[in-house]
């Protein structure tokens, strides 16, 4: 399966590995070698906006794709998922990145201005833990269960030496210092992932519905992933949540699952997603996971972001359709997933999920 998939992508010049192989061949081989890959026939520009969580991965994907296809340009601007979805509906983005799929009501309403029909392709290609990160002098890690995390962000635990925190961190010298929780100012799929976790594991504390918009006026707001990370970095006593790829220099929370505290990792996040079903009632080209943090299996990390690429089945321009399709195929390929893992620490998708994703991508009409 893997060989035929790479061959199909190679035929349209979408795999960076083939471009690298071509460079090697050109260095020492003759121009007539049968080992040299055919030149890319792709050309044109596609515009994209969306999830800031994907930014590091998108940079690596775009660089590799444009190297393999030198006559193409992929412009991805990290606006946040909510803005990305708005742009897709308005018709100003050829595809988007989003930290959640469009929900059933949004799909039923249709009116995706980027498309010539209401049929869309949604593929989960970026799986990453959402870290709960903090800034406390001399403390690198803390253990916290879901109820305690919910109380911190709900504002009912307000000091770092609170008994609920201390009881889970014996031997840690917690400061008598105010806690400043940080959330996203913009509509964010990362925020929805986090609030879904809170409402699932601590419904008596976090009484709000999962949402990409923060329900409280307390705490501090950061614009995008960078804004949240910057606020925590510059504020001693601050705590927030962000894609784990952006929080390496901050203190980290190990989250309680089945009586054990689990530090974030790509593998632990993947374990949560792999234990989750796809949402029912969607088409074969609309692959949205139904992740339940309350059902996280032992050893998994319960706050995992499943981020999507979203495009049209039908575009009004065949060149745009071909470019989007080729780009999606590269991102979903083993090479693309490895590139994202190296750049952003994300979890590569499984081979079985890749088969489903390639079926979804095939729905994009290019003729």
3D architecture notes:
- It is built from 13 helices and eleven strands.
- It has helices at 2-11, 16-28, 55-68, 81-90, 104-109, 146-154, 163-166, 189-201, 224-234, 266-274, 318-332, 334-344, 351-361, and strands spanning 44-50, 72-78, 95-98, 120-134, 141-144, 180-184, 220-222, 238-243, 251-257, 260-262, 304-312.
Radius of gyration: 22 Å
Q: Main beta sheet: strand number and arrangement?
A: 11 strands, mixed
Number of helices: 13
How many beta-strand segments? 11
Low-confidence regions? 1-36
Mean pLDDT: 89
What overall form do the CA principal axes indicate? elongated
End-to-end gap: 25 Å
Show the helix and strand layout:
Elements: H1 2-11, H2 16-28, E1 44-50, H3 55-68, E2 72-78, H4 81-90, E3 95-98, H5 104-109, E4 120-134, E5 141-144, H6 146-154, H7 163-166, E6 180-184, H8 189-201, E7 220-222, H9 224-234, E8 238-243, E9 251-257, E10 260-262, H10 266-274, E11 304-312, H11 318-332, H12 334-344, H13 351-361
Parallel strand pairs: 1-2, 1-3, 5-9, 6-7, 6-8
Antiparallel strand pairs: 3-11, 4-8, 4-9, 4-11, 9-10
Helix pairs in contact: 2-3, 3-12, 6-8, 11-13
């Amino acid at each position: 399966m893997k060989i035929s998939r790479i061959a199909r992508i190679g035929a349209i010049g979408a795999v960076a590995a083939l471009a690298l192989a071509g460079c090697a061949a050109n260095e020492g081989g003759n121009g007539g070698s049968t080992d040299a890959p055919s030149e890319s026939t792709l050309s044109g520009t596609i515009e994209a906006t969306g999830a800031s969580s994907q930014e590091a991965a998108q940079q690596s994907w775009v660089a590799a794709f444009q190297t393999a296809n030198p006559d193409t340009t992929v412009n991805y601007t990290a606006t946040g998922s909510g803005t990305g979805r708005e742009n897709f509906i308005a018709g100003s983005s050829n595809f988007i990145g989003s930290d959640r799929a469009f929900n059933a009501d949004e799909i039923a309403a249709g009116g995706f201005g980027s498309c010539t029909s209401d049929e869309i392709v949604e593929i989960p290609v970026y799986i990453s833990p959402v870290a709960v990160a903090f800034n406390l002098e001399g403390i690198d890690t803390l253990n916290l269960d879901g109820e305690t995390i919910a109380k911190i962000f709900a504002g009912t635990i307000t000091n770092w030496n609170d008994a609920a925190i201390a009881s889970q961190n014996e031997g840690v010298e917690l400061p008598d210092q105010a806690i400043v929780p940080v959330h996203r100012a913009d509509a964010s799929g990362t925020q929805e992932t986090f609030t879904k976790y809170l409402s699932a594991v601590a419904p008596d504390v976090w009484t709000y519905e999962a949402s990409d918009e923060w329900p409280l006026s307390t705490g501090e707001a950061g614009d995008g992933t960078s804004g949240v990370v910057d606020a925590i970095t510059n504020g001693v006593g601050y705590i927030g949540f962000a894609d784990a790829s952006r929080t390496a220099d901050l203190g980290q929370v190990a989250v309680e699952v089945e009586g054990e505290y689990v530090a974030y990792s790509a593998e632990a996040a993947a374990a949560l997603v792999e234990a989750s079903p796809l949402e029912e009632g969607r088409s074969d080209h609309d692959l949205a996971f139904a992740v339940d943090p309350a059902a996280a299996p032992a050893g998994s990390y319960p706050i995992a972001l499943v981020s999507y690429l979203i495009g049209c089945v039908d575009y009004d321009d065949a060149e745009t359709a071909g470019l989007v399709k080729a780009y999606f195929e590269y991102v979903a390929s083993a090479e693309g997933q490895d590139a994202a893992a190296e750049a952003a620490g994300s979890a590569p998708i499984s081979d079985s999920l890749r088969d489903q994703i390639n079926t979804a991508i095939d729905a994009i009409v290019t003729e």
